Amino acid sequence: KKRPFLFPASSHSFSSSRHGSTLVVAEHDSGAVKPHSLSAVTAATSLAGNGNSSVSVLLAGSGPSLHQAASHAASSHPSVSQVLIADSEKFKSPLAEPWAKLVHLVQQQGGYSHIIAASNSFGKNIMPRAAALLDVSPITDVTGISDAQTFVRPIYAGNALCTVRYTGSNPCILTIRSTSFPVPQKSNDSKAEASISQVNLSNFDEALIIFFWISADLNKSRYIYQTSQDDEGPDLGNARVVITGGRALKNAENFKLIENLAKKLGGAVGATRAAVDAGFVPNDLQVGQTGKIVAPELYMAFGVSGAIQHLAGMRDSKVIVAVNNDADAPIFQVADYGLVGDLFEVIPELLEKLPEK
Ligand code: FAD
Q1: Residue 208 in this model has a pLDDT that exceeds 80
Q2: Which protein residue's CA is at the shortest distance from atom 14 of ligand 1?
Q3: When comparing pLDDT for 316 and 9, which is higher?
Q4: N or C: which end of the chain has fewer CB within 10 A?
Q5: Which of 85, 72, 81, 80 minimizes the C-alpha distance to 13?
């Protein structure tokens, strides 16, 4: 089925025939690009090493923090040649529909060969919608890039890795697992920072009307409010140490043992789905197939059985320590260090003996 032609060539604000160029759709907060999105820049850079000539970063929102984040993006990696900012109240709230339309618009203007975002709730929400608007199939949860068309991604809850080759038309849309692509270190490279330009949004509303007609009502979702954990600890997705508790903690009060240990080790708190479903902790702490994917230096699991769906979210951790009172618990099959014991004895002892961080 042919899509209607949306934008006349004269409305393109930058080159419409780029070969081998990548657009990173990035998220920002408090004037900085979020670490997940910086990992997407790393992935884009590895495409650049596979023949793609340039990396552009797209940021949207409004106010001074957007411009601060643009400066951050411009200096994030020498391979970033351009930062595009869409400065509008339309992108102030993280609603997927206007963002997907924005990605579509920027693709029309820039003709990228690849578009990448992190595989977190931001990327998972926007990229499939953008792919549908662009009439291409996205490749999700990429953990490795072999060349500009060949990607590795986990299947069967992480029990197998599949190498897929993209044979569709441009753009090739990817979401990447940020745990597989390190956040780029700020380089001392003398290369000039990337240029920062504004996205031409003059066609944006026109595009909305056309898509309203062909696809969905944009008013289907409505921004109400956003809350965040008022927790001083590191972000679960990027923490170097993660301390996870399972159903065995029995209640929210006991879960404080996990929180105290995490605080002592400077780590983030994680939980199994059973612990979340039982209401011990909020669901943004869930690790696993339907929760967060983590790969810290140290992952400690207390009273976690090691169900396949949980392992899917943490099996790439560098060192896994498990404490469980059942010697046959499957978590021991992936653990580097295992202790068969009662967590209600082990955690207090650790809290007592570990030095303050
Ligand atoms: P249990 O399986 O009940 O294990 C508790 C463990 O604690 C047991 O091994 C027990 O021996 C041990 N224990 C008990 N008392 C003590 C004690 N005093 N000291 C030490 N050890 C003790 N789960 C996730 O975690 N993340 C996901 O993203 C996820 N997604 C899912 C998606 C789907 C589609 C489905 C079907 C399931 C999903 N699950 C997920 C659920 C998953 O299958 C398991 O049910 C869940 O992980 C079990 O959590 P648990 O290990 O806390 O509880």
Answers
A1: no
A2: 248
A3: 316
A4: N
A5: 85
- Quick one: which atom of ligand 1 is closest to the CA of 287? 26
Residue nearest to atom 45 of ligand 1 (CA): 274
Q: Under DSSP, is residue 67 helix (H, G, I), strand (E, B) or coil?
A: helix
Question: How many other C-beta atoms can be found within 10 angstroms of the C-beta atom of residue 291?
Answer: 22
**pLDDT higher than threshold 90 for residue 142:** yes
Residues 6+ apart with CB under 8 A from 193: 71, 74, 75
pTM of this prediction exceeds 0.90: no
Closest to 134 (Cα-Cα) out of 295, 23, 60: 23
Instruction: Mention every residue, 6+ apart, whose C-beta is less than 8 A from residue 321.
Output: 298, 299, 300, 301, 335, 336, 337, 338, 339
Integer-rounded Cα radius of gyration of the chain: 22
* pLDDT tens digits for range 228-272: 666 677 889 889 999 999 999 999 999 999 999 999 999 999 999
Best residue among 236, 273, 283 to mutate for probing ligand 1's pocket (most ligand atoms within 8 Å of CB) is: 273
As for the ipTM of the complex, it is 0.99
